[in-house]
Here is the input.
Amino acid sequence: MKANFYKHTRYTTRGIATEMPLELQEFLWQSIDDWNAEDFPLDYLQVFKFKKVADGLYAIEHTQEEPERTIVYYVGNELGVESVVGKTVFVIDDGDHSTMLFASEY
Here is the structure.
């Protein structure tokens, strides 16, 4: 079954809301929307990892397991990535709603 990640039923945990800049949250949702627009089958679990690559350069790795897919985005700190370097974010779709949370909140 393909996950939907409906735009009108998206939620974030308190941790995401307080620790992650809104611009970065929006970027992650847009990444999921982009895959959905390609009509690519989305797994119910989307995973994002944040790494510092060089001074002022960060990697956002977006993955899913089934079907397997990985895309890495390279960005500056305009999205506030520095605040979440080393963390992992899950976006889980249960069919009715989608929730963005830090892996440590799972």
